[in-house]
């Protein structure tokens, strides 16, 4: 098919993130024009059910009138101001208060960024700063996990544990380490029970800490559910065991709740769902339901006190972004949290979760499906070349992308993460719309099976 005018303009002008650039000039992008509820429409007027909330973020769907009105009011009142050097704005204050109220730990202060990557970058700087302030300059290493996704800045991409984010970028930087990924289906050994696998994974973390020296390790960072690594739900007991190891060595737990925050797993936080007691938390995405870019780091009183003492010595706390705490993002964050509360989004997610789970489990029998994974309203369907042996498709096969394309033909958008099809529908989705999404997915899997070579 020849490219449309807007597609041609796109390929002439844009460098797209996370896109097979070598194919885009032939296929052209899918150009979206507007959205309403859980649906988006392309420039040709075709409607798609958006089963990924964009990039795990538009949790309240598209065209929400209350959010739009909150944005309009804030733009009229004060479109920009900052929090530097003793200035402030009320939307930032109000959002920080709300975050403290709902935080999964005793949060003392909130630091705003514009994205999840900046939030995690900030986490690393804060951990380093904190240990300098406490006279432990050698306690600087951060342990992340293989298959983690924490962002794309130099340091957050280093925390990310995916080879494509490191190769060619000369990453990871020093002081960032990666421990085992807790994915039983992929990394469990033949004959090993899930419990044994969990124990081995945690033992491997212990050994890494012992090898490096616990006095050199500042923090461990983890997503409660690994999102962009393939929607990997940890085995029961994993985080409890990890936390026991960290507690022995005074290592902070940084929870990256960028995907799992704000109701996605059926609780406010993935930390609650998986029994995590974090020392500090990163958020973004559903913080504003993606109506404006905003991220945040919530910190404890202990960290804050260290920063105050250090600031008294050197004159200033030397970190901040021009748009961190942007009034538009903060006004939208306040409104989004109000909506999560007033529309009881958590109960909605819990009520829909059994249907979500049942439709995912039904896919287990499909010849292409190796494993399905889920919690609340986030899930993943891993496609394999051989169900019995779990053999994956060849790395350059692109089966996930093929399935995602068939999904578009059937009026649905989901995201292929390698060979895993991720699902993260807007939390306002109805039961009928959820059925429609899975009907499209089933058809797309059949179409893929009909054409795929193994
Ligand atoms: N952390 C997690 C868990 C994420 O999923 C993402 C993005 O997908 C990020 C951090 C990075 O956020 P951003 O793309 O806003 O920089």
UniProtKB/TrEMBL annotation:
Entry superkingdom: Bacteria
Keyword Transferase: yes
Listed GO MF terms: adenosylmethionine-8-amino-7-oxononanoate transaminase activity; pyridoxal phosphate binding
GO biological process: biotin biosynthetic process; gamma-aminobutyric acid metabolic process
The entry's keywords: Aminotransferase, Pyridoxal phosphate, Transferase
Pfam family, one: Aminotran_3
Xref: InterPro entries: Aminotrans_3 (IPR005814), PyrdxlP-dep_Trfase (IPR015424), PyrdxlP-dep_Trfase_major (IPR015421), PyrdxlP-dep_Trfase_small (IPR015422)
Record keyword Disulfide bond present: no
Annotated family: Belongs to the class-III pyridoxal-phosphate-dependent aminotransferase family.
Protein name as it appears in the record: Aminotransferase class III-fold pyridoxal phosphate-dependent enzyme
Organism whose genome encodes this protein: Stappia sediminis
